[in-house]
Design a protein that fits this description.
138 residues; 9% helix; 1 helix; mainly beta; 8-stranded mixed β-barrel; two-stranded antiparallel sheet
Length: 138
């Protein structure tokens, strides 16, 4: 499975995107993402979005969220940066991470817990890849 994220708009303190979870050619789940505002960085502690590219997933037991969540990493962004996919609604909730939502609102994503639950149910703690692409409006 591959989670494709296409970033399309930067507003205030956040970057909005669309996601599609694919199993081969089949679309399993669709929705929206919220990440920190740009620019992209590999540097830790900046509350900025990670660079576009392909990421692997490790499963992380998060004490903060009291859940087992997908952690994104690759050769540029180490696991120690702790970039998670979790629930939240706007740029203040991201801390560098990727938030999922079922729909867009005026100030971020909506129905985030439902979107995260749907993703976790679909992937069932299996390995999957994440591909992030920037197509941000200027």
């Amino acid at each position: 499975m591959v989670l494709e994220i296409v970033r399309f708009k930067e507003i205030d303190d956040m970057t909005l995107g669309r996601f599609i979870l694919r199993d081969g050619e089949r679309e399993v789940l669709k929705g929206y993402t919220c990440e920190p505002a740009g620019p992209d960085t590999t540097q830790s502690g900046m509350d900025r979005r990670i660079p576009q590219g392909r990421y692997q997933i490790a499963w992380h037991d998060s004490p903060k969220f009291r859940a087992r969540l997908p952690l994104l990493w690759n050769d540029q962004v180490p696991k120690s940066r702790c970039i998670l996919i979790h629930s939240g609604n706007n740029g203040r909730n991201t801390e560098g991470c990727v938030l999922l939502g079922s729909s867009l609102g005026a100030h971020g994503v909506k129905d985030s817990r439902a979107a995260l639950s749907a993703l976790l149910a679909a992937v069932k703690e299996q390995e999957f890849a994440v591909r992030i692409v920037n197509h941000i409006e200027e």
